[in-house]
Write a structure and sequence with these properties.
Chain lengths: 344, 796
């Protein structure tokens, strides 16, 4: 349906070609999801047992852990997967510019040096803003290769007309957003209107063109894990590049059980459709330790391909700060303080 | 590897838990441990020591005193001496000690966890997150029971000195399951941990000492099977509690037969893990991991037989194989491994041999591509497909990380496969259909059924087996009865109760000069009167040795026929309590209608006075009423276990029960034993009074007129000495009650060891069946049932 995005490869090769090895290899291996016809039989057969999922989710990070150098390296990897986000009513160009410069140099140079990470271009996965801030962000990030993601389609509730949603996506793409985070109509899930959901997401994908489509399920409003799984499959069938848990505005946002269900859906989709779809947990991930939990979940349930920004993102604003402090602690053995790290 | 490389590869690194505190603790004891007897560390009289090692590295950890017979004597004597004061201390005092133990275990939880992992080879994740928290939970729970002993359990008293023998697979957990209820109910004890894993029990002994537990209440002796058998055979021990293999369980059953020692046995298993096509398969895969790759599969209740509906089998196998590839194996103290070391080279060899046998028999073996570490005793997770019930590996307990998979077509076939085993410890049922799950659960022969989960434990729920997985429960209210006895048991007589024979001569046998019509009572089998197979009869005399009739002389074929009839009458078991109650009330009504006839028979045979005979018949009618009343009231519980889980403790009928009725109460003894058994849904094969069987043979006309379905009560007359051994030897009988002699009691217990049928014998202690305290009560129903715990998690 859509060819692999060209400009994405471009931004990766912009700088420091010597550091790009692994990411480049991953990229070339991953074809963009082309979607497939809606398979309602498959959707109807989906069953998720909440208690069993919760048990797995609660024991996964007890079965795996990373310590010392491994922890530091994994945290750096987590940074590379962050969609550094600001989605507030009082956003102005001022704070968005600040956020973008943090995105480009997320960790203090001396810390990277101490970690032996010099020469590695470390930057976040994307900067995520409202439509009005796209231009500022694109301008600030120019040349960095960091894409701007825009939330769209009447984010966070999505209670506007379909036509308005399409128009919003197109406007954002035009304004320079290379990733569009849409919200699905939760009502379609709650009423079992899978055809409607499929059609809606397909339209969004068309409107995106070459921009990547992240579908936010707002899982906190979907009532059951079975609904979460069904909605994930429908979105992927309709061509989503990423499935994303939450807007960050629901009362319950990214949780490990929900993420487990969505990750398993992505695994299943890869098995029956042959496309690797990305996953983005968002909302409530503030601690370095949590980021490791999610990386472990990705590695265990989906595999190493899902440990790069191509297929995995954190939607987070505060997470980076905590990771910086942990990295400094790793180097110095002293617990760090947030004021020692440049703010976003 | 430097950070850049790790960043690119994103592999896991080492994540070792420090062993220094545990090693320091061992060194503080000069790497040598004596016996803990009477509150003191004592060098073994045997003068012998053995080594314990870390199976993940094969390094020696410590030298352990090897208790000999004399050491066992010393330990039992210490426990005996401590008993009176411990009993006198009372419920609250004991509760304080148990609470202190629970707190100490929590406070030292990491030390316990590390030590357990070092000694056993199991992963630190399991000891830290599962074993030790459950141990603390068990002591908390039983601190509560200790406190409630004198209110909730006032009819009971302690058993005395308990001998406890525990296995190596869950050293601390098994210790807790044994010690907590024993102490809570006021017993003192001698424990023998497994020789492969003695260390945490010694740390526990030290804690007992630290909290000031009175000397001799807990005695800890290590050693091999010789110390174990000395403890089992010791005359000073009132009860043996054992967890381990079925073969050793059998030895214990035989060794204690006829001694009056209570025993509880938690033995092996080959538990089914049933997956239906509507299950959440990704969750099933994790269930499989928890079922068979928990503790290297060295789990008595491991879900080791995977039964999958054919329609999803290949899909599930594929998912399981993918998951197996991701399991990590390694040193037990690495915090990021799933599978640790096998406990010993012997156990490793057993596993290797059985797997080889599985391959030789045509099973398709699959193991992950990665290699096991070679510096310890490791075995990779293994999956066998293309296996049938006839394969050795689908019948025997492997006790290793080996899963055996078979498919089924229908729900009924799934059930048949699940129950096609001598064992009955646990089962796991995976389906999103609650109707199906709750249809399966009661029909699976197992003490624990986990719905959509597996290997979940809690102190508030009982755990234990059906069939050859042993008997007795550990945990919950149902586990307490293993460590106490009814106060009324002390009133039982050591001689048969004498019945009051009248002085006057008996009635004449004829009337008006015409002889009575010859009446020979037949057997009663499958609702029909049946001639004895052997074609012999036994003369029945009255109390004055006058001939009053004849009954058939039953033999082994009559028993066989009666068991077949009882097995065929399964619908009685599935009837509601209310429906059974109606039949029983009707039985009482019809006995009442013929009360005079039954009374006259008692006068005639026993020489009772009319009023005494009337009293016995009246008592029999009342007793039927009691059990008719209880038929729909002796029900289960919902245990308080884990969050968002209903744990149903359901009493279930044993099945077919052989009842050798008391000799001295021909009617009341028959009624008092047969009726509670059938009230709970059992089908009974009754051997009535040998000297006065006519009251029982008269009774089948009452049975016939009372809508008791054929096969529910079968009566085989004959001799105790002939019939009892046949009953006890019969593998298709699930339980046996015996109310005759001490010698007969021994035979029953000894012979029942083969199929581990539940036994309830009188050990030559006689009940006065006219006394309601001795002759009826809940304990009859408890012996007629076994508790199944069904775990039902919920949430959508």
């Amino acid at each position: 349906m859509f060819p692999l995005k060209k400009h994405r490869n471009q931004y990766i090769s912009i700088r420091n070609s010597h550091l790009m090895g692994i990411i480049k290899i991953n990229m070339s291996a991953i074809k963009r999801n082309e979607g497939m016809p809606l398979d309602l039989d498959l959707i109807q057969e989906i069953r998720v047992n909440r208690s069993a999922v919760e048990r797995r989710a609660s024991t996964m990070n007890k079965r795996r852990t990373v310590k010392k150098e491994w922890q530091a390296a994994w945290l750096l990897r987590a940074i590379s997967c962050i969609d550094l986000t600001t989605l507030a009513g009082d956003d102005t160009p001022g704070n968005v510019i600040r956020l973008c410069s943090k995105a480009m140099s997320p960790v203090r140079e001396d810390i990277l040096e101490a970690l032996g990470f010099v020469g590695h271009e470390l930057r976040v996965g994307a900067v995520c803003v409202y439509h009005n801030m796209i231009k500022t962000a694109v301008r600030t990030l120019e040349g960095s290769g960091i894409p701007v993601a825009a939330v769209s389609t009447g984010f966070p509730a999505g209670q506007i007309t379909h036509r308005q949603k399409i128009a919003e996506i197109k406007a954002s793409v035009k304004a320079g957003a290379r990733e569009i985070d849409i919200v699905i109509s939760r009502g379609k899930v709650l009423t079992g209107d899978w055809r409607g959901l499929y059609k809606e997401v397909q339209d969004f994908r068309d409107a995106c063109g070459e921009a990547h489509l992240k579908t936010i399920l707002a899982t906190g409003e979907l009532s059951t894990l079975t609904n979460v799984s069904k909605a994930s499959h429908v979105c992927m069938m309709a061509g989503a590049d990423f499935i994303k848990t939450s807007t960050g505005k629901e009362s319950v946002n990214a949780t490990l059980p929900v993420s487990l269900v969505m990750a398993r859906a992505a695994r299943e989709y890869f098995e029956y459709a042959g496309f690797k779809v990305g996953f983005k947990p968002a909302g409530g991930i503030r601690k370095a330790k949590q980021s490791l939990d999610w990386l472990i979940l990705m590695k265990e349930e989906l595999g190493d391909d899902w440990l790069s920004s191509e297929l995995f993102r954190f939607g987070a604003s505060g997470l980076l700060g905590d990771i910086e402090r942990q990295l400094e602690h790793f180097i110095t053995g002293r617990y760090s303080s947030s004021y020692r790290h440049p703010m976003a | 590897m430097n950070i850049k490389e790790i960043y690119e590869k994103m592999e896991y690194g080492p994540a070792p838990e420090s062993s220094s505190a545990a090693i320091d603790w061992i060194k503080d004891h000069n790497s040598k441990f004596d016996l803990f007897i009477n509150g003191k560390w004592q060098a073994p009289l045997s003068k012998k020591y053995f080594n314990t090692e870390n199976p993940a590295t094969t390094e020696r950890l410590a030298k352990i005193a090897d208790a000999g017979t004399k050491d066992v004597d010393k330990a039992v004597a210490a426990a005996r001496k401590a008993l009176p004061e411990w009993v006198k201390l009372g419920a609250h005092g004991r509760a304080r000690y148990l609470y202190a133990i629970a707190r100490q275990i929590q406070k030292n939880s990491r030390l316990f966890s590390v030590l357990e992992s070092l000694d056993n080879g199991k992963t630190i994740r399991e000891t830290r997150d599962i074993d030790i928290p459950l141990v603390a939970r068990h002591f908390y729970h039983h601190a509560g029971w200790a406190q409630l002993k004198e209110s909730e359990l006032r009819d009971y008293k302690e058993l005395g000195v308990i001998g406890q023998i525990i296995p190596w697979n869950f050293p601390m957990m098994m210790l807790a399951w044994k010690i907590a209820p024993a102490l809570a109910m006021g017993n003192t004890l001698v424990m023998k941990p497994a020789e492969n894993t003695p260390l945490t029990a010694l740390l526990f002994a030290e804690i007992c000492h630290q909290i000031g537990l009175p000397d001799g209440v807990v005695n800890m002796i290590n050693g091999d099977h010789k110390a174990g058998s000395a403890l089992v055979e010791h005359k000073g021990v009132d009860k043996i509690a054992f967890t381990g293999s079925t073969s050793v369980g059998r030895i214990i059953r035989r060794a204690t037969a006829g001694t009056g020692k209570k025993i509880s046995l938690e033995l092996g298993g080959k538990s089914p893990f049933m997956v239906f096509e509507d299950a959440d398969l990704d969750s099933v895969v994790e269930g499989v991991v928890d079922a068979i790759w928990f503790n290297q599969g060295q789990v008595c209740c491991a879900g080791s037989r995977l039964l999958v509906q054919e329609s999803i089998a290949e899909k599930l196998y594929k998912k399981i194989r993918a998951r197996m590839e991701k399991l990590r194996i390694g040193n037990s103290l690495d915090k990021a491994v799933d599978i640790g070391a096998i406990v010993s080279p012997m156990q490793l060899k057993t596993i290797e041999d059985l797997v080889q046998k599985g391959v030789d028999e045509g099973g398709k073996l699959w193991q992950p591509s990665w290699a096991c570490p070679t510096d310890g005793y490791f075995y990779p997770p293994s999956l066998f497909t293309d296996v049938t019930p006839a394969s050795t590996i689908s019948q025997v307990e492997i006790f290793g990380p080996v899963l055996v998979a078979m498919t089924f077509r229908t729900h009924e076939e799934a059930l048949q496969l699940a129950n096609n085993t001598r064992y009955g410890l646990a089962a796991s049922v995976w389906t999103e259909n609650i109707n199906l799950a709750l249809d399966m659960a009661p029909r699976i022969k197992a003490g624990t059924v986990w719905i959509n989960c597996t290997n979940v434990f809690d102190a508030a729920s009982g755990f234990g087996g059906y069939r050859e997985s042993g008997f007795g429960r550990e945990g919950g209210r149902e586990g307490l009865v293993e460590y106490m006895k009814l106060r009324s048991e002390e009133q039982l007589s050591s001689k048969p109760i004498a019945r009051n024979a009248k002085k006057a001569p008996g009635k004449s046998v004829g009337q008006n000069g015409v002889p009575q019509i010859d009446r020979t009572a037949k057997m009663y089998i499958g609702g029909k009167q049946a001639r004895p197979d052997g074609g012999y009869s036994i003369s029945v005399s009255d109390f004055k040795k006058n001939l009053v009739g004849e009954v058939g002389e039953g033999n082994r074929k009559d028993i066989r026929n009666a068991v077949e009839a009882a097995q065929a009458a399964g619908s009685w078991t599935s009837m509601t309590g209310h429906a059974r109650a109606q039949v029983l009330y009707y039985l009482a009504e019809n006995l009442y209608a013929r009360a005079e006839e039954f009374s006259a028979r008692l006068e005639q045979t026993l020489g009772l006075s009319k009023s005494d005979a009337n009293k016995e018949v009246d008592c029999a009618i009342q007793r039927i009423y009691t059990y008719a009343a209880m038929a729909d009231k002796y029900d289960g519980r919902v245990h308080h276990t884990i969050t968002r889980n209903v744990t149903l403790a359901m009493p279930e009928a044993l099945g077919v029960v052989g009842v050798v009725c008391p000799d001295e109460f021909p009617l009341l003894g028959f009624i008092s034993t047969v009726v509670p058994a059938i009230a709970m849904g059992n089908r009974v094969l009754a051997v009535p009074s040998e000297t006065a069987p006519l009251s029982a043979t008269d009774f089948y006309q009452v049975l016939e007129t009372s809508d008791v379905p054929g096969g529910v009560v079968n009566i085989v007359t004959g001799k105790d000495k002939t019939l009892t051994p046949v009953l006890a030897d019969h593998d298709n009988i699930d339980g046996i009650w015996y109310f005759r002699s001490k010698d007969g009691s021994k035979i029953v217990e000894e012979k029942s060891a083969e199929n581990m049928k539940r036994t309830w014998v009188n050990n030559g202690k006689y009940r006065n069946w006219l006394d309601a305290d001795q002759g009826e009560g809940e304990f009859f129903l408890r012996n007629a049932t076994q508790i199944k715990n069904i775990w039902i998690p919920y949430g959508a």
